[in-house]
Amino acid sequence: MNGDEDTPRANTPARLREALVDEVAARRSLLGPPLSPRVEAALRTAPRHLFLPGRPLEQAYADMPVVTRTDAEGVPTSSVSQPAMVAAMLDQLRPEPGHRVLEIGSGGYNAALLSELVGPAGSVTTMDIDPDVTARARSALDAAGYDRVEVVLADGEFGLPDRAPFDRIIVTVEAWDIPPAWPGQLARGGRIVTPLRLRGLTRSLALEQDGDHLVSRSDEMCAFVAIQGVGESPVLRIPLYGAEVGLVLEKGPGIDPVSLAGALAAPRVDLHSGVELGPVGPLSGLDLWLACAFPGFCLLTATPWAVGHGLVAPAWAAGTPALAEGGAFAYQGAPEHAGHGPLRAEFVVHGHGPGADDLAARLAGQARVWDRDHRSGPGPVFTVHPAGTPDDRLPGGFVIDKRHTRVVVTWP
Ligand SMILES: C[S@@+](CC[C@H](N)C(=O)[O-])C[C@H]1O[C@@H](n2cnc3c(N)ncnc32)[C@H](O)[C@@H]1O
C-alpha cells in the first residue's frame, strides 16, 4: 500500500517519489558506490508522506531531513531522516529477506523501508525513547499498511534482550559509544550500522564481529540528532562570545573552560599550512585525521553575525574543525578568494590565547602529514574493543576511549 489512491493528478506522491529517488540514485552514482537495486526498489515503494502527516507533499519528497521534535532550547531531538542518508545506511546494513532487524530511533519511514527489504519472512522492531515518537510511528506505520512492524518505547542503550538475537541492528540517532547490548544481541554473522560520534565528528559505521571486537566494513559521512538517555554524550559547550561564537568539545582533562571563555579577546595568530583543499567544504578525510590526532579536537561554531563582524573566520555552518588545549584554541579558517580565478582553498589556521601559535603550528603540521601520507589512501578502518582491553592487545592506530569501548582508528 502506498497511500497514493486519493491524490489529485498533478504532483502525486508517486510522481514526487519517483523524482526524489531518481535524484538520490543519480547523486549516489556520481559520489560513490551506486544505490543497490533492492534499496532503490524499497525507496520507490514506501510512502514517505504518510510518515509526515500534515506536511506539504513537496517537503515530504525533498531530499531533506524533516525535524519533528525539538527540546526546550529548540534543539532538534527527532526527525524523519534525509532519504539519501537513509539509503546510504541501508546499503551499509544489507538487510536480506527473512532477517530479524532492530532499529534504534523511530520515525516510521526507515522501519517501512526495512520491512520492504526483509519481506514477509523477516521482522522489524523499531524502538524509541520518546513516547510521542513511538505513538506517531505506530499510527503512521498502520496507516501505510506496515502493521507487522513492532514499535517499542524504551532506551536503545539496552537493546531488546527479549527479542534478540537480531541479524541486523541499525541505529538512526548519533551514538557516542557502542553499548555492550548491541554486539551482545547480534546474531552470528550479523551487522550493526550506527552513526558514531568521534570528538565531534560523526561517521556511520557498518560493524561486524571479529573475535572479541567489532571491525568496520564501511563508513559514511552523516549527521544525526544526539542520543538521549543513559548513553548521552558528554558534550561541553563553551561560549567564547555570548551565544555568537562557541566551542563544542568533549569533556576531558587538559581543557580549561574558564580561560577558554576569555581567549577570543587575545590577539589572533594566523598561519598558512601550504595544504591546498578542494574548492568547497571541509574534507572528510582531513577533519577525521585531525580529530584522531588531537584529543582536544573540537568544533568552533559561529553565527553569521559573528562572521560578518569579523569576530571569527569560520567556513562551515555545521562547525569548523578546531583544537583546544589549556586556555587556547586554534581553528581552520575560511577559504580565501584571490580576487580572480577559482576559489583558493588553503588550509589556514587562526588561533587565540596563550600558546595559540604552538597550537596553530601543530594543527597545520598534522594537515601536512595527512596531505603527504593519507590524502589519496583508502581511508581509515575502525575497530571497537571492550573497555579495559590493554594497549598491547589493540591494533596500531589512534585510540579514542569511550565508556564501554576503546575505538581504534587505523589509517593504512
Ligand atoms: C533521526 S530520528 C530517527 C529517524 C527515523 N529512523 C526515520 O525513520 O526517519 C532519531 C530518534 O532517536 C530517538 N532516540 C534518541 N535517543 C534514543 C535512545 N537512547 N533510545 C532510543 N531512541 C532514541 C529520538 O527520540 C528520535 O526520535
Task: Give a structural overview.
- InterPro entries: Methyltran_FxLD (IPR027573), PCMT (IPR000682), SAM-dependent_MTases_sf (IPR029063).
- The chain has 412 residues and is α+β, with helices and mostly antiparallel strands.
- It folds into 2 domains: 13-231, 3-Layer(aba) Sandwich (Rossmann fold), CATH 3.40.50; 235-373.
- Helices cover 26% and strands 30% of the residues.
- Helix 1 (13-31) runs antiparallel to helix 2 (37-45).
- The longest helix has 19 residues, at 13-31.
- It is globular, with a radius of gyration of 22 Å.
- The structure holds S-adenosylmethionine.
- The site of S-adenosylmethionine (SAM) has 28 residues, from strand 2, helix 5 and strand 4.
Layout of secondary structure:
Blueprint lengths: L12 H19 L5 H9 L11 H4 L5 E5 L5 E5 L2 H11 L6 E5 L4 H10 L4 E6 L2 H13 L6 E4 L12 E6 L9 H4 L1 E13 L2 E10 L2 E9 L13 E7 L3 E6 L6 H6 L6 E8 L7 H10 L3 E6 L1 H5 L11 E6 L2 E5 L13 E7 L3 H18 L7 E6 L11 E4 L3 E6 L2
Helix pairs in contact: 1-2, 1-4, 2-5, 9-11
S-adenosylmethionine (SAM) binds next to strand 2, helix 5 and strand 4.
